[in-house]
Every structure is written in structure tokens, then in C-alpha cells.
Structure to design on (143 residues):
């Protein structure tokens, strides 16, 4: 085989190999950049979910305080009660977002504790019950 031909074949093979290695390196760099951007976006979403939950819980605590103050002073608590229910409902969206975005059980436990402290859990949504036989739907016995 001619030495010039061998050098030419090696040069072409080296060029092709260099192109493959360069393409692989660029692809890996692009994947790494995309993964870093996705992680940054997820971190921002997680931080926003935590901040939204904290803000909603604070609004709900304030509404609870106002309702209890109205009750303690003998004022009508229908306005603060409605605000309290609205604020409690607004805790649900950030809590759900936090549960979806942060699968860590420690974070979810902390979020649940925050919900319970703000009084937005199901254990605080008790109905006012009237004694049996009283109220607008009183039963009467017919003889």
C-alpha cells in the first residue's frame, strides 16, 4: 500500500473520529445545561410554593384571630367567619402545589403541621350542632 494513501485514509478516519467525539461532547454539554435549567426552574417553583403556603397560612391565622376577637367581644362574627372560610380554602392550592413539587416526606409533614396550626385542617371544620329536637326542623309527634 502506498504511504500517501495510508496517510490519507488515516487523516479521513481521524477527522471522522474527531467529529464524532465533538458531537458527543456538545450533546453532553447540552444535556447538562438543560438539566441545570430544569433544576433551577424547579427550585424556583418549590420556593414559590413554600412562600405561597406561608402567606396563605398567615392570612388564615389573621382571619381566625379576627373571628375569635369578634366572638370574645360579643360582636357579630359572620363577616370574619366568612373571611376565615375563604382564607382556609385559599390554603389548599399552595399546599397541593407543595405536595406535588416537593416529594420529600419531611417537607410534607411540615406543610401538614402548618395547615393544622393555621386551623385549616378537617379537624377544625366542625359543624355547629343544635340539641336534638330543637332548631327550625323540630319534629312533632302526632297522636
Amino acid at each position: 500500500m502506498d504511504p500517501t494513501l495510508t496517510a490519507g485514509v488515516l487523516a479521513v478516519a481521524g477527522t471522522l473520529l474527531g467529529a464524532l467525539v465533538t458531537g458527543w461532547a456538545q450533546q453532553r454539554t447540552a444535556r447538562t445545561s438543560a438539566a441545570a435549567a430544569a433544576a433551577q426552574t424547579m427550585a424556583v417553583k418549590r420556593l414559590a410554593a413554600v412562600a405561597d403556603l406561608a402567606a396563605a397560612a398567615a392570612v388564615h391565622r389573621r382571619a381566625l384571630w379576627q373571628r375569635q376577637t369578634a366572638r370574645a367581644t360579643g360582636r357579630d362574627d359572620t363577616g370574619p367567619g366568612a373571611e376565615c372560610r375563604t382564607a382556609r380554602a385559599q390554603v389548599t392550592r399552595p399546599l397541593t402545589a407543595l405536595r406535588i413539587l416537593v416529594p420529600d416526606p419531611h417537607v410534607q409533614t411540615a406543610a401538614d403541621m402548618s395547615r393544622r396550626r393555621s386551623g385549616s385542617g378537617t379537624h377544625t371544620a366542625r359543624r355547629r350542632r343544635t340539641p336534638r329536637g330543637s332548631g327550625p326542623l323540630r319534629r312533632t309527634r302526632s297522636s
In short: Residues 3-73 form the longest helix (71 residues).
